[in-house]
C-alpha cells in the first residue's frame, strides 16, 4: 500500500509532482493532511455568493475536480481527466435586465445551470453570465440550438445576446492553454480515483436563495453604472448620490 501511495505522489505534473503540489497546498493552508493519510480541502472550492444555481446538479463533481485536483494536487498544471467531457453553453447578458430575463429561460430549458455576476472572478470576462453544463460536445451543440431560439424570441434578449459553447472552466485555459489542445493522459483516470478516495467528504454546498443573490446583482449593477437595475427598485437609485459642488464659485448660482 505504501508503494502505491508513493508512486501516486511521485507522479509528475509539469515541473512538479502531485506530492510536491499537495505539500505546498498544506503549507498554504488550503489542504489539511490527516494522520490516516486522507486529505481535507480547507478552502471553499467554489463560490456561490453571486450565483443562482438551478435545481439540477452538474454532470461532474466540480468541487472535487476543480477545487482539489486542479488547484491543489495538480498545481494548476493539467486539466483533470474527469473534466474531459465537460462542455458549457455560455450566455452573456449585457445588463441586469437581461440577466433577470435569462432565469425563467434557464428554468424552462431543464439543464444544470448557474446565472450570476462574475465581477469577483479573476478570469471572468464581462459582468454577467448564464452557464449551462453538459456531458459532451454533442449535448452542448444540441442544447445551444434550442437555447439560441429561446433567447432570440425573448424581447428583452434577442439575437444580439452572445451564446457560445466553451469547454471546461475558463481557468483551465488560462493555465493549460486552448481547450482544443487539452491532453488527458490515460493513467490520470486511475490516479484521480486513488486521489479522490483519500479526500474527505466536502461540506455541503450551501446555495443562497435567489432573493439573496438578486440583491447582490443589484449592488453589482449599481457599481458598474448599469441603470437597468432601476427596473427592480421602482426607478429609485440604490444608494443616495453624493452632493457635488461647482469648481468655480461663480457657477454656484
Can you describe what's shown?
With 253 residues, this protein is of the alpha+beta class. It has one domain. It is built from 8 helices and 9 strands. The strands form 3 sheets. A 5-stranded antiparallel β-sheet has the order 5-7-8-6-9. Strands 1-2 form a two-stranded antiparallel sheet. A hairpin with a 5-residue loop joins strand 3 and strand 4. The chain starts with a helix and ends in a 30-residue tail after the last helix. The model has no long low-confidence stretch (mean pLDDT 93).
Present the secondary structure layout.
Layout: H1 2-10, E1 12-13, E2 16-17, H2 18-28, E3 31-33, E4 39-41, E5 51-53, H3 62-73, E6 86-92, H4 96-109, E7 113-117, E8 128-135, H5 137-152, E9 162-167, H6 170-176, H7 187-197, H8 210-223
Antiparallel strand pairs: 1-2, 3-4, 5-7, 6-8, 6-9, 7-8
Features:
253 residues, five-stranded antiparallel beta sheet, 8 helices
Oligomer: single chain
Q: Describe the sheet with the most strands.
A: 5 strands, antiparallel
Poorly predicted regions are: none
Strand count = 9
Distance between the termini: 85 Å
**What portion of residues belong to β-strands?**
15-25%
- SSE topology string: HEEHEEEHEHEEHEHHH
**Widest β-sheet, arrangement of strands:** 5-7-8-6-9
Whole-number mean pLDDT: 93
- The domain tally reads 1
User: Number of helical segments?
Assistant: 8
Helix content: 25-40%
Mind telling me the C-alpha Rg? 22 Å
Q: How would you sum up the global shape?
A: globular
